[in-house]
Design a protein that fits this description.
With 352 residues, the protein is an alpha/beta fold. Helix content is 41%, strand content 16%. The longest helix has 16 residues, at 284-299.
Length: 352
């Protein structure tokens, strides 16, 4: 059982409360059996991507605290904790179902784990609230595995997917904020059109936005129908016609891009020097934000012409691994098709 949790409040409150609970130990003689069980439990909920690549990053950086800022079912974290016995974990997730699953999966690691009810945009507050537990241990790593989990998509009643007709909710935390249906009812048509274009709808973005706002869908089926009415069959792309509309709404309802911007800068702030930030993104908008942020860190924000060299005194705050993003292997994609769209970018904090 996880010893402590932190109750989430909106970021504007700037406060987090911690409560104590029980504990559990992790026996070295049970490693193989426990790891096998953890594998079964995590894949039943959600199969994490690029696990081997993430675990390899911390060879030599495994003594300290790791922050899994998108804990989900605990798949990445379970592998890291099992591989590196001196690593401790702060796991953050706003989805109560994910936190419950992760608590089960990570229970064998006992008081090496803290699970927090928050968003990754709150990472600075979360780490500050856990400072007594962290003590002098360095924060050696932060992981952000962005987007929606397999479990959230498969749980039809959550309204994330067109696979089942259900109330149009889409909230990662179903206790806070507007549902997708409520968001549509208050949406500005021009802003909604822009949102659809940013998520890949170009030619029909305006027509789709108008159809959705006019019909005020209350269920996933009604949302799909609103999109299908205005996109001719002859020009539909491969896949479901409403995929991008669902994605755009989910991102807006959960303020995913705002959370990402805050979370990236917050992650850099909490990391110790030489700490590693790894970010897995699944669509171009997320990846552009991560790439541009990493570039800003690597150049210190310098905008001087390359031919003249830097004369503005900018100081780099991070180095960036690889010139381009890292992709899943062909073997992993075969085993887990969701990994096909995953892109991993890595930054390492340097002394300013």
């Amino acid at each position: 059982m996880i010893r402590a949790t932190v109750a989430y409040r909106p970021r504007s409150t700037r406060s987090l409360a911690m409560s104590e609970g029980g504990s559990a130990s992790f026996s070295a003689c049970a490693d193989f059996a426990d790891i096998e069980r953890l594998q079964v439990e995590r894949t039943a909920y959600h199969e994490p991507v690029l696990v081997e690549e993430i675990v390899a990053l911390y060879d030599g950086h495994s003594s300290g605290v790791f922050v899994d800022a998108t804990l989900g079912g605990g798949g990445h974290s379970a592998r890291l904790l099992a591989t590196y016995p001196t690593l401790r974990l702060i796991g953050i997730d706003r989805d109560p179902e994910a936190r419950a699953q992760a608590a089960t999966v990570l229970a064998p690691f006992g008081d090496r784990v803290r699970i927090v009810a928050a968003t990754f945009g709150d990472i600075v507050d979360v780490v500050q609230a856990a400072r007594e537990w962290i003590a002098d241990a360095p924060v050696v790593g932060v992981l952000m595995d962005l987007g929606v989990s397999s479990h959230q998509l498969d749980a039809g009643e959550r309204g994330f997917s067109f696979r089942a007709d259900a109330p149009l909710d889409m909230r990662m935390d179903p206790t806070l904020g507007l549902t997708a249906a409520e968001y549509i009812a208050t949406a500005d048509i021009h802003e909604f059109t822009r949102l659809l274009r940013e998520n890949g709808e170009d030619r029909f973005a305006g027509a789709i936005a108008r159809s959705i706002v006019k019909s005020l869908p209350q269920t996933t089926g009604e949302l799909s129908a609103a999109v299908e009415r205005v996109v001719p069959m002859a020009v539909r792309r491969k896949g479901h016609v409403a995929t991008r509309a669902f994605q755009a709404l989910r991102i807006a309802v959960n303020d995913e891009m705002g959370q990402l911007a805050a979370g990236l800068d917050g992650a850099l702030e909490v990391l110790d020097t030489s700490g590693i930030l790894s970010v897995i993104s699944y669509h171009s908008g997320e990846d552009r934000t991560v790439k541009s942020t990493f570039q800003r860190w690597a150049t210190g924000g310098c905008t001087c012409p390359q031919a003249l060299g830097c004369v503005c005194g900018a100081v780099a705050v991070a180095t960036v691994d690889r010139a381009s993003s890292q992709l899943a292997t062909a073997n992993e994609i075969t085993l887990n098709p969701r990994a096909r769209s995953a892109r991993l970018r890595i930054a390492r904090k340097v002394a300013a």
